[in-house]
Amino acid sequence: MTNRPDTAPAFPATRMRRNRRTPWSRALVRENTLTAHDLIWPVFVIEGQNRTEAVASMPGVTRYSVDLLVGKVEEAAELGIPAVALFPNTPASLRTVDAREAFNPDNLVCQAVRAIRKAVPDIGIMCDVALDPYTSHGHDGLMEGSDILNDATLDALVKQSLVQAEAGCDIIAPSDMMDGRIGRIRSALEANGLQHVQIMSYSAKYASGFYGPFRDAVGSSGTLVGDKRTYQMDPANTDEAIREVALDLAEGADMVMVKPGLPYLDIVARVKDTFKVPTFAYQVSGEYAMIMAACNNGWLDPKKVIPEALMAFKRAGADGVLTYFAVEVAKSLKA
């Protein structure tokens, strides 16, 4: 009969350090592993040709025009990264109250999808579904006065999803947190012969202070009116996350996501334990910026803390992680 930990023989019969003594032994008994296949690389797209822009609040992160982005995605694919997630920095002139640029089949995201699909056919392409990169007020939904309109926004999200799917997107990723959007998007995809398109729902997306650098990267920080607490989740809640995930799965989500990442590992673990479905986490911009700031100041060793942080997601039960460190980590794993 196998001894449980509470009935294991005492020291010196049990010496926990035996299995830690050599590198080969540590590798043999390791409970979790991190590979390039666990990574999704979020990338930012800008207008123009042969253009790059550094994101000041995210050291090492760059916005790319579509022509340059294709080469970067080719590199990611060669490193074994299975998917990229696209986010546009929409020019201010195209941001409107009705977010109509989101439905433009030739918008930045759709251009990028088509270019990547042609040049790198075997990599997965994930597209964010939310209106904040396209609205003049910076919110994920349509507004009337100070209210975010749930049901009217659903119509807009369906149109946005369809133009992205028709451009060649593999994974639709609604991050807007409107009620009922997964069911509406799934029905629209089915009705339009796009039943193969996957949905990764941002099911448990919290109203977090860790999103600031991302909003800089997509250009929405200066436009945001008020905050997003009427639709993103209260950081104090956990049971609510389980209800959100259950609803999204019932409406047709193939995969679910928790966002942010490290501050919400308890949610990742609980979602995975409860539903046993593909579960992902987003190591968001604020997490990235904090790690980079400490590393750039010499306070932390990036070769140690970056993979350690990512391993925490695997240990909590995540099947994969969206991380701005994806390319760097994939290179180190291949070395």
Give a verbal description of the structure.
- The chain is α/β, with parallel strands linked by helices and 335 residues long.
- The chain contains 11 helices and 12 strands.
- The chain has helices at residues 23-28, 66-78, 108-119, 150-167, 181-191, 212-218, 239-251, 265-275, 285-296, 302-316, 326-334; strands at residues 39-46, 52-54, 62-65, 83-88, 124-129, 142-144, 147-149, 171-174, 198-205, 255-259, 279-282, 320-322.
- The protein has an 8-stranded parallel beta barrel, surrounded by 8 helices. Strands 6-7 form a two-stranded antiparallel ribbon.
- Helix 8 links the parallel strand 10 and strand 11 (279-282).
- The longest helix is centred in the middle third of the chain and has 18 residues, at 150-167.
Record the SSE blueprint.
Elements: H1 23-28, E1 39-46, E2 52-54, E3 62-65, H2 66-78, E4 83-88, H3 108-119, E5 124-129, E6 142-144, E7 147-149, H4 150-167, E8 171-174, H5 181-191, E9 198-205, H6 212-218, H7 239-251, E10 255-259, H8 265-275, E11 279-282, H9 285-296, H10 302-316, E12 320-322, H11 326-334
The computed structural class is alpha/beta
The 3D shape can be described as: globular
Instruction: List the helices and strands in order.
Output: HEEEHEHEEEHEHEHHEHEHHEH
Low-confidence stretches: none
Kindly provide the radius of gyration, computed on alpha-carbon positions and rounded to a whole number of angstroms.
21 Å
Q: Bin the strand percentage.
A: 15-25%
Mean pLDDT: 95
Q: Report the end-to-end length measured between terminal Cα atoms.
A: 42 Å
How many strands?
12
Amount of helix: 25-40%
Tell me the strand order in the biggest sheet.
Answer: 1-4-5-8-9-10-11-12
Helical stretch tally: 11
Major sheet attributes: 8 strands, parallel, barrel
